[in-house]
Design goal:
Oligomer: single chain
Low-confidence stretches: 1-12
Number of domains: 1
Number of strands: 11
Structural class: alpha/beta
CATH superfamily: Spore Coat Polysaccharide Biosynthesis Protein SpsA, Chain A
Largest sheet: 9 strands, mixed
Strand content: 15-25%
Radius of gyration: 19 Å
Distance between the termini: 47 Å
Protein backbone atom coordinates (compact mmCIF):
# COMPACT_ATOMS: atom_id res chain seq x y z
CA UNK A 1 0.00 0.00 0.00
CA UNK A 2 1.35 3.43 -0.91
CA UNK A 3 1.75 5.71 2.08
CA UNK A 4 1.61 9.49 2.10
CA UNK A 5 5.35 9.50 2.72
CA UNK A 6 6.14 7.24 -0.25
CA UNK A 7 3.79 9.24 -2.46
CA UNK A 8 5.60 12.43 -1.48
CA UNK A 9 8.92 10.75 -2.19
CA UNK A 10 7.79 9.82 -5.69
CA UNK A 11 6.81 13.39 -6.45
CA UNK A 12 10.17 14.57 -5.23
CA UNK A 13 11.87 12.20 -7.60
CA UNK A 14 11.21 8.66 -6.43
CA UNK A 15 14.01 8.66 -3.85
CA UNK A 16 13.63 8.92 -0.11
CA UNK A 17 16.10 11.50 1.10
CA UNK A 18 17.05 13.08 4.40
CA UNK A 19 18.73 16.07 2.74
CA UNK A 20 18.09 19.31 4.62
CA UNK A 21 17.76 22.34 2.39
CA UNK A 22 20.02 25.26 3.23
CA UNK A 23 19.08 28.92 3.12
CA UNK A 24 21.14 29.16 -0.07
CA UNK A 25 19.10 26.36 -1.64
CA UNK A 26 15.86 28.12 -0.74
CA UNK A 27 16.98 31.51 -2.03
CA UNK A 28 18.28 30.10 -5.33
CA UNK A 29 15.05 28.15 -5.81
CA UNK A 30 12.94 31.26 -5.15
CA UNK A 31 15.05 33.42 -7.47
CA UNK A 32 14.89 30.91 -10.32
CA UNK A 33 11.20 30.29 -9.71
CA UNK A 34 10.41 33.99 -10.05
CA UNK A 35 12.41 34.17 -13.28
CA UNK A 36 10.74 31.09 -14.75
CA UNK A 37 7.22 32.22 -13.77
CA UNK A 38 7.60 35.74 -15.13
CA UNK A 39 9.84 35.26 -18.15
CA UNK A 40 9.06 31.89 -19.71
CA UNK A 41 5.48 32.73 -20.71
CA UNK A 42 6.81 35.76 -22.58
CA UNK A 43 9.63 33.70 -24.08
CA UNK A 44 7.19 31.04 -25.32
CA UNK A 45 4.92 33.67 -26.92
CA UNK A 46 7.90 35.19 -28.68
CA UNK A 47 9.12 31.80 -29.92
CA UNK A 48 5.68 30.96 -31.29
CA UNK A 49 5.58 34.26 -33.19
CA UNK A 50 9.09 33.86 -34.59
CA UNK A 51 8.63 30.23 -35.68
CA UNK A 52 4.94 30.08 -36.61
CA UNK A 53 5.72 29.80 -40.33
CA UNK A 54 7.92 26.74 -39.67
CA UNK A 55 4.89 24.67 -38.65
CA UNK A 56 2.17 25.88 -41.00
CA UNK A 57 3.10 23.51 -43.81
CA UNK A 58 5.91 21.20 -42.77
CA UNK A 59 5.51 18.76 -45.63
CA UNK A 60 5.59 15.04 -45.02
CA UNK A 61 9.03 14.71 -43.48
CA UNK A 62 10.32 17.64 -41.42
CA UNK A 63 13.85 17.34 -40.04
CA UNK A 64 13.95 15.75 -36.57
CA UNK A 65 16.82 16.09 -34.09
CA UNK A 66 17.34 13.22 -31.66
CA UNK A 67 19.65 13.58 -28.69
CA UNK A 68 21.13 11.49 -25.90
CA UNK A 69 23.19 12.60 -22.90
CA UNK A 70 25.56 9.83 -21.79
CA UNK A 71 28.46 9.04 -19.49
CA UNK A 72 30.70 5.96 -19.81
CA UNK A 73 28.03 3.53 -20.96
CA UNK A 74 29.32 2.73 -24.44
CA UNK A 75 27.98 -0.83 -24.68
CA UNK A 76 24.43 -0.15 -23.57
CA UNK A 77 24.36 3.12 -25.52
CA UNK A 78 25.08 1.28 -28.77
CA UNK A 79 22.96 -1.78 -28.00
CA UNK A 80 19.88 0.14 -26.94
CA UNK A 81 19.61 3.85 -27.77
CA UNK A 82 21.70 4.02 -30.94
CA UNK A 83 20.33 0.76 -32.34
CA UNK A 84 16.80 2.01 -31.70
CA UNK A 85 17.41 5.31 -33.44
CA UNK A 86 19.05 3.94 -36.59
CA UNK A 87 16.21 1.37 -36.97
CA UNK A 88 13.57 4.09 -37.13
CA UNK A 89 11.10 3.95 -39.98
CA UNK A 90 11.42 7.74 -40.13
CA UNK A 91 14.76 8.56 -41.77
CA UNK A 92 15.02 12.38 -41.98
CA UNK A 93 16.90 12.79 -38.72
CA UNK A 94 20.13 13.82 -37.09
CA UNK A 95 21.30 12.12 -33.91
CA UNK A 96 23.36 14.06 -31.38
CA UNK A 97 25.09 12.13 -28.61
CA UNK A 98 26.79 14.26 -25.95
CA UNK A 99 29.26 12.61 -23.63
CA UNK A 100 29.66 14.13 -20.19
CA UNK A 101 33.46 13.93 -20.50
CA UNK A 102 33.37 10.19 -21.25
CA UNK A 103 36.64 8.40 -20.50
CA UNK A 104 35.67 5.01 -21.95
CA UNK A 105 35.44 3.94 -25.60
CA UNK A 106 32.15 5.72 -26.36
CA UNK A 107 33.57 7.69 -29.28
CA UNK A 108 35.20 4.62 -30.84
CA UNK A 109 32.02 2.54 -30.50
CA UNK A 110 29.92 5.25 -32.16
CA UNK A 111 32.38 5.47 -35.06
CA UNK A 112 32.04 1.71 -35.57
CA UNK A 113 28.30 2.13 -36.09
CA UNK A 114 29.16 4.10 -39.23
CA UNK A 115 25.95 6.13 -39.52
CA UNK A 116 26.68 9.65 -40.85
CA UNK A 117 23.57 11.01 -39.15
CA UNK A 118 25.20 10.55 -35.73
CA UNK A 119 27.27 13.37 -34.24
CA UNK A 120 29.23 12.81 -31.04
CA UNK A 121 30.53 15.60 -28.86
CA UNK A 122 32.43 14.91 -25.65
CA UNK A 123 32.46 17.62 -23.00
CA UNK A 124 36.05 18.55 -22.07
CA UNK A 125 35.53 18.34 -18.32
CA UNK A 126 33.16 17.03 -15.68
CA UNK A 127 33.76 19.17 -12.63
CA UNK A 128 31.82 19.62 -9.40
CA UNK A 129 28.20 20.70 -9.98
CA UNK A 130 26.26 19.73 -6.86
CA UNK A 131 26.78 17.74 -3.64
CA UNK A 132 27.67 14.30 -5.09
CA UNK A 133 25.00 12.12 -3.51
CA UNK A 134 23.28 9.28 -5.34
CA UNK A 135 20.04 11.27 -5.13
CA UNK A 136 21.55 14.32 -6.76
CA UNK A 137 23.12 12.26 -9.54
CA UNK A 138 19.60 11.03 -10.29
CA UNK A 139 18.06 14.49 -10.03
CA UNK A 140 20.56 16.53 -12.04
CA UNK A 141 23.18 14.21 -13.52
CA UNK A 142 22.28 14.54 -17.25
CA UNK A 143 21.60 18.29 -17.19
CA UNK A 144 24.87 19.69 -18.55
CA UNK A 145 25.15 17.16 -21.38
CA UNK A 146 21.46 17.49 -22.26
CA UNK A 147 21.63 21.29 -22.41
CA UNK A 148 24.73 21.07 -24.60
CA UNK A 149 22.83 18.81 -27.01
CA UNK A 150 19.91 21.26 -27.15
CA UNK A 151 22.29 23.99 -28.26
CA UNK A 152 23.51 21.77 -31.13
CA UNK A 153 20.22 20.64 -32.67
CA UNK A 154 19.16 21.79 -36.17
CA UNK A 155 15.79 20.11 -36.69
CA UNK A 156 12.20 21.39 -36.55
CA UNK A 157 11.37 18.77 -33.97
CA UNK A 158 13.28 17.31 -31.03
CA UNK A 159 13.18 13.79 -29.59
CA UNK A 160 15.11 12.57 -26.55
CA UNK A 161 16.20 9.04 -25.78
CA UNK A 162 18.27 8.08 -22.74
CA UNK A 163 21.27 5.83 -23.34
CA UNK A 164 19.72 2.80 -21.59
CA UNK A 165 16.25 3.00 -23.15
CA UNK A 166 14.86 1.65 -26.43
CA UNK A 167 12.26 2.83 -28.92
CA UNK A 168 9.76 1.03 -31.09
CA UNK A 169 10.75 1.21 -34.76
CA UNK A 170 7.94 3.70 -35.47
CA UNK A 171 8.58 5.89 -32.42
CA UNK A 172 9.46 9.10 -34.28
CA UNK A 173 6.89 8.64 -37.01
CA UNK A 174 4.07 7.95 -34.55
CA UNK A 175 4.82 10.89 -32.24
CA UNK A 176 5.42 13.26 -35.15
CA UNK A 177 2.06 12.46 -36.75
CA UNK A 178 0.34 12.78 -33.35
CA UNK A 179 1.91 16.22 -32.83
CA UNK A 180 1.10 17.41 -36.35
CA UNK A 181 -2.50 16.22 -36.34
CA UNK A 182 -3.22 17.63 -32.88
CA UNK A 183 -1.16 20.79 -33.43
CA UNK A 184 0.67 20.02 -30.21
CA UNK A 185 3.94 21.62 -29.19
CA UNK A 186 4.98 18.86 -26.78
CA UNK A 187 3.88 15.22 -26.95
CA UNK A 188 4.74 11.98 -25.17
CA UNK A 189 3.67 8.35 -25.47
CA UNK A 190 3.20 5.21 -23.40
CA UNK A 191 6.11 3.08 -22.22
CA UNK A 192 6.50 -0.61 -21.48
CA UNK A 193 8.39 -0.65 -18.18
CA UNK A 194 10.01 -3.66 -16.50
CA UNK A 195 10.54 -3.81 -12.74
CA UNK A 196 11.53 -6.97 -10.86
CA UNK A 197 10.64 -9.14 -13.85
CA UNK A 198 7.17 -7.65 -14.29
CA UNK A 199 6.34 -5.57 -17.38
CA UNK A 200 3.57 -3.02 -17.35
CA UNK A 201 2.38 -0.32 -19.72
CA UNK A 202 2.74 3.08 -18.11
CA UNK A 203 1.18 6.26 -19.41
CA UNK A 204 2.80 8.56 -16.87
CA UNK A 205 0.86 11.17 -14.92
CA UNK A 206 -1.63 13.83 -15.91
CA UNK A 207 0.02 17.14 -16.78
CA UNK A 208 -2.09 19.01 -14.25
CA UNK A 209 -2.18 16.71 -11.26
CA UNK A 210 -0.82 16.53 -7.72
CA UNK A 211 2.10 14.49 -9.08
CA UNK A 212 3.47 17.68 -10.61
CA UNK A 213 1.65 20.27 -8.48
CA UNK A 214 1.61 19.56 -4.71
CA UNK A 215 -1.27 21.97 -4.09
CA UNK A 216 -3.18 21.18 -7.25
CA UNK A 217 -3.39 23.22 -10.44
CA UNK A 218 -6.36 24.86 -12.07
CA UNK A 219 -6.58 24.43 -15.83
CA UNK A 220 -8.97 24.67 -18.72
CA UNK A 221 -9.58 22.04 -21.37
CA UNK A 222 -7.49 18.93 -21.88
CA UNK A 223 -5.32 17.29 -19.24
CA UNK A 224 -3.17 14.74 -21.10
CA UNK A 225 -0.73 12.26 -19.64
CA UNK A 226 2.98 13.05 -19.63
CA UNK A 227 5.02 9.96 -20.46
CA UNK A 228 8.67 9.22 -19.58
CA UNK A 229 11.65 11.28 -20.69
CA UNK A 230 12.54 8.98 -23.58
CA UNK A 231 9.14 9.70 -25.13
CA UNK A 232 9.57 13.50 -25.09
CA UNK A 233 8.90 14.88 -28.59
CA UNK A 234 8.51 18.62 -29.15
CA UNK A 235 8.87 21.61 -31.43
CA UNK A 236 12.44 22.80 -31.60
CA UNK A 237 11.68 26.36 -30.51
CA UNK A 238 11.08 24.89 -27.05
CA UNK A 239 14.81 24.13 -26.84
CA UNK A 240 15.13 27.55 -25.25
CA UNK A 241 13.68 25.89 -22.14
CA UNK A 242 16.86 24.36 -20.75
CA UNK A 243 17.13 21.81 -17.94
CA UNK A 244 17.66 23.33 -14.51
CA UNK A 245 21.04 22.42 -12.95
CA UNK A 246 19.68 23.60 -9.58
CA UNK A 247 16.64 21.30 -9.63
CA UNK A 248 18.14 19.25 -6.77
CA UNK A 249 17.83 22.28 -4.47
CA UNK A 250 14.01 22.23 -4.60
CA UNK A 251 11.72 20.48 -2.14
CA UNK A 252 9.35 19.22 -4.83
CA UNK A 253 9.74 17.82 -8.36
CA UNK A 254 13.50 17.73 -7.98
CA UNK A 255 14.21 15.61 -11.06
CA UNK A 256 15.44 17.64 -14.04
CA UNK A 257 12.90 16.31 -16.55
CA UNK A 258 9.94 16.83 -14.20
CA UNK A 259 11.14 20.36 -13.49
CA UNK A 260 11.18 21.01 -17.24
CA UNK A 261 7.68 19.60 -17.77
CA UNK A 262 6.23 21.78 -15.01
CA UNK A 263 7.85 24.90 -16.45
CA UNK A 264 6.54 24.13 -19.94
CA UNK A 265 3.06 23.61 -18.52
CA UNK A 266 3.24 26.84 -16.53
CA UNK A 267 4.34 28.73 -19.64
CA UNK A 268 1.31 27.41 -21.54
CA UNK A 269 2.87 24.91 -23.95
CA UNK A 270 0.26 22.80 -25.75
CA UNK A 271 0.62 19.20 -24.53
CA UNK A 272 -0.55 16.01 -26.20
CA UNK A 273 -0.22 12.29 -25.52
CA UNK A 274 -0.23 9.24 -27.77
CA UNK A 275 -1.99 6.20 -26.32
CA UNK A 276 0.50 3.77 -27.77
CA UNK A 277 3.68 2.12 -26.51
CA UNK A 278 6.61 3.89 -28.18
CA UNK A 279 9.35 3.33 -25.56
CA UNK A 280 10.81 0.35 -23.71
CA UNK A 281 12.38 0.87 -20.28
CA UNK A 282 14.12 -2.23 -18.95
CA UNK A 283 16.79 -2.87 -16.28
CA UNK A 284 20.43 -2.45 -17.19
CA UNK A 285 22.56 -5.64 -17.18
CA UNK A 286 23.00 -6.93 -13.63
CA UNK A 287 20.07 -4.89 -12.31
CA UNK A 288 16.45 -5.87 -11.65
CA UNK A 289 14.63 -2.54 -11.74
CA UNK A 290 14.83 0.88 -13.36
CA UNK A 291 14.94 4.62 -12.72
CA UNK A 292 15.49 5.86 -9.16
CA UNK A 293 14.88 2.40 -7.69
CA UNK A 294 17.92 1.10 -9.59
CA UNK A 295 20.05 3.98 -8.32
CA UNK A 296 19.18 3.32 -4.69
CA UNK A 297 19.62 -0.46 -4.93
CA UNK A 298 23.08 0.07 -6.42
CA UNK A 299 24.03 3.29 -4.63
CA UNK A 300 27.69 2.46 -3.98
CA UNK A 301 28.43 1.64 -7.61
CA UNK A 302 26.44 4.64 -8.86
CA UNK A 303 28.45 6.99 -6.62
CA UNK A 304 31.66 5.49 -7.95
CA UNK A 305 30.50 5.64 -11.56
CA UNK A 306 29.34 9.27 -11.45
CA UNK A 307 32.19 10.65 -9.36
CA UNK A 308 33.12 14.16 -10.49
CA UNK A 309 36.46 14.36 -12.25
CA UNK A 310 38.19 16.81 -14.55
CA UNK A 311 40.55 15.93 -17.38
Amino acid sequence: MKTAESDQSERRGGINTTYKRTLRDILITIKKGIWYDTAEKIILSRQRFLHKKDYIDEGKEPFVSVYTPTYNRSSILVERAISSVIRQSYKNIEYIVVGDCCTDDTEQQIKKVGDPRIRFYNLPKRGYRYPPTVENHWYAGPVVAANTALRMIKGNWIARIDDDDMWTDDHIESLLRCAQEGKYEFVTGDALVEREGIRKIQKGNRAFSTHFYPNGKSFKGRNPYVGPTSSFFYRSYLKIFKYNIDCWRKNWNRVNDIDLVVRLANAGAIFGHLDKVVTYITPRPGETTVASDAYMKDAENKLRHFEFKSK
